[in-house]
Design brief:
It is built from 7 helices and 19 strands. It is of the alpha+beta class and about 325 residues long.
Length: about 325
């Protein structure tokens, strides 16, 4: 145990037969809200876990991932359990990191922010992908990474370890229902993302979802920004329109939704932005006719796919 300059304690856990025993003074129940022993098994196939499990919280995460800590905090990071496993055959070491986020949408968000859609899909959690030496997946409110030295991993065995960890973390849940706001035609793979703050560089645009679409040159973007009320959405929309005061060809549009405006920006191309009740729907970079069709489709979907409600299987 050691104390940090800020008065925080780096927690080290020792796990015996699936039960966490803390070597510091805080109780395990207060320091972690899930069973580390169950989520990080002593053994899985040829993998054997080291005795110690390190825990990090929002105050000391920078000690583990200094350059990326701020992004994790933005996505609602709660705590991290990390441990090493060794392959008894090859002596390869894998570092396992289990990040608990504020909720499932936050785990989805940080996963999609880091993973490459070009990586190979693996059947872990709600969604997972594997590169040459790393497996990433998200399940429930957890984002999990397994990393070996370059060229050091036997991927089938590494996937089996990932499956054991996923099982210990409980039911995986499902994709955020907000993904159903976006039409699938022309949508780039794995391009739906959750943006917790400052979407499009706008301080008022928080908890937004975006998707990317096929388009000549740079991909086009569709964005949905939710607000607590129609009044809040209208105020944020007015500020966004004012922000684009110098955009060319600004034109008012009466529909879809409650209407809005279109304009052309030198960086973002053609922009079509409307308000639909307490949500803003914005298309950037798509040709005018396609942008109009996309925004209309999204506005219709907002009325049938409500955030926070269960998605019926096959509904999108």
């Amino acid at each position: 145990m050691r104390w940090l300059a800020a008065g925080l304690m780096l927690v080290t856990l020792t796990v015996d037969t699936g039960v966490a025993r803390q070597t510091g003074q805080r109780s395990v129940a207060r320091s972690i809200p899930y069973s580390v022993g169950r989520a990080l098994p002593d053994r899985s196939g040829d993998w054997t876990r080291a005795a110690q499990i390190q825990m990090f919280n929002p105050g000391d995460l920078w000690e583990h991932i200094n350059g990326a800590a701020e992004q994790y905090l933005t996505y609602g990071f709660q705590d991290l359990a990390t441990a090493q496993y060794t392959d008894r055959t090859t002596r390869t070491v894998v570092v396992v990191e289990v990040y608990r986020m504020a909720g499932a949408v936050n785990a989805f968000g940080i996963y999609r922010q880091e993973v490459s859609p070009k990586a190979r899909a693996v059947p872990l959690g709600v969604e997972g992908r594997a590169s040459s030496n790393t497996i990433r997946f998200w399940t429930g409110e957890f984002y999990v990474k397994l990393t070996t030295p370059p060229g050091g991993g036997r991927m089938p065995e590494l996937e089996a370890l990932g499956a054991a960890i996923a099982k210990g973390l409980g039911a995986p849940g499902a994709m955020p229902v907000e993904a159903g706001w976006f039409p699938t035609a022309g949508q780039l793979p794995d391009s739906v993302k959750f943006i917790p703050a400052d979407a499009l560089g706008q301080a008022a645009f928080a908890n937004a979802f975006e998707a990317k679409y096929e388009n000549p040159g740079e991909p086009a973007t569709a964005l949905v920004v939710p607000f607590g009320s129609d009044k809040d959405a209208a105020a944020a929309f007015a500020r966004y329109e004012s922000f684009l005061a110098k955009a060319r060809g600004k034109t008012k549009v009466a529909s879809p939704g409650d209407g809005g405006f279109s304009a052309t920006d030198s960086f973002q191309g053609f922009i079509l932005a409307v308000r639909a009740g307490s949500r803003l729907v914005i298309s950037l970079g798509a040709p005018e006719e396609r942008a109009a069709a996309m925004v209309s489709d999204i506005v219709k979907r907002l009325g049938t796919v409500q955030a926070g409600q269960p998605r019926k299987e096959g509904s999108w």
